[in-house]
Design goal:
single chain, 123 residues, alpha+beta, Umud Fragment, subunit A
């Protein structure tokens, strides 16, 4: 498994674990996803292409804390993200994307490319 992860890192793909219920039922607490990390600024065209996909975001107000949310809207260089489970997002108020307002596209750190079930070989 470490060899596979090393090879994936060469292609800017990292492993992330879902924490919380804000993305249920799409992603469950404890589930592992592979994320293609963004090394450069994302163009407006690319942002439109990934609209609707699950992204990893790091807000300036919460450095070091990565949020897993869905990219809902794009307006120029601004983005709007939301969790799939609105009820759970309310319970996790610190991470409730509805209170974030628009974010800079620079907050996107990666795009989810694959998910794995709990207990699978890759989880």
């Amino acid at each position: 498994m470490r060899v596979v992860e090393g090879i994936l890192r060469l292609f800017s793909i990292e492993r992330a674990e879902v924490k919380g219920l804000s993305m249920a039922p799409t992603l469950r607490d404890g589930q592992v996803i592979w994320v293609r990390m963004a090394k450069v600024s994302l163009s407006r065209e690319y942002l439109e292409k990934i609209r609707g996909r699950v992204v990893i975001v790091e807000r300036d107000e919460m450095p070091g804390i990565l949020l897993i949310k869905r990219l809902e809207k794009v307006h120029g260089d601004l983005i709007w993200i939301e969790g799939d489970n609105k009820d759970a997002s309310l319970l996790e108020l610190q991470n409730d994307s509805r209170k974030f307002d628009w974010l800079s596209s620079q907050t996107i750190k990666g795009v989810a490319v694959r998910k794995f079930s709990r207990g699978s070989l890759n989880a």
